[in-house]
Amino acid sequence: MRKFIVIFILLIGVFIYLFLFNNIKVSVIVPVYNTEEYLDDCLTSLKNQTLKDIEFIVINDGSNDKSFQIMQKYAQNDKRFRIFNQDNQGVGKTRNFGMLQAKGEYIGFVDSDDYVAINYFDELYKVAKKYDSDVAVIVNTIKFSDEQKQNYYTFALPYVQQRVIDSIDFMIGNLGQQWDKIYKKSFIEKYGIKSYERRVWFEDEWFSSLVALYAKKIAITDKTIYFYRHNPTGITQSINLNEKKFWEGFLLYNRLLDIIQTLSLDKNKKIKLSKLVNNKIRWYIDTYWIFGEKTEELDKYYNPFFNI
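The structure assignment produced for this chain is given below.
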């Protein structure tokens, strides 16, 4: 009897600890690479979030400037900041490492040269819980650079209110970035969704497309804003337009077509999703055709898609 009482008390203690001290709603992952000029803006916007049950996983990916010292300053004054230091691995591997460290119910991402509104994760979490969604997405972003401030735009969606959308609407909206959403951690783990770890064109599209294909519910909100800095030297911008990276990205898109055929969906939805992925492939080829190297091999794919 005494042994039973001791075990019961221990279980109650574990429950209280998990409920009171490990009730993290959102884990925010921030890969950092040589962004000392902008990092204070990013981390201050996180520190001031109105959602308090939150953690910030900030990972220095081999920076050779003062980024890590700035990270340390925040971690010393705020226990919600968990900082890591590693040799340069690239943004994909860094995000995956961050997801392994995450303790929150949901996972979000912020690039270290960007920043977010103070209610950003609060609003995303509220809409995610309201609809019990696997993913919650914003529609409003302010894109800016040091030369041009606050050019406002809304993603291409036919509505700007809180609601649930399906995978087809999600992909039509062209929401390819990882940083404009939060994802239920159990959903990510169930389907083994990871960032693509090699540097290719539009590697965010791989992660977001997998999310779109597997998610049962996707909630959307216009109640908050992400501030996206166009930084040509940023961690997600510095990819050379070479043919090897193009073909690797091209094959990723084609893998999505294979995945669609394995899903438990009706035939019409599979056809619609496949058409959307093919449209992305067309856009991908067209972008490289304009900005990259033109070869006979690429021409074999370009001509059939565009009927030239």
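Interim note for the steering committee: Residues 17-21, 235-239, 304-308 have pLDDT under 50 and may be disordered. The first helix runs from residue 2 to 21.
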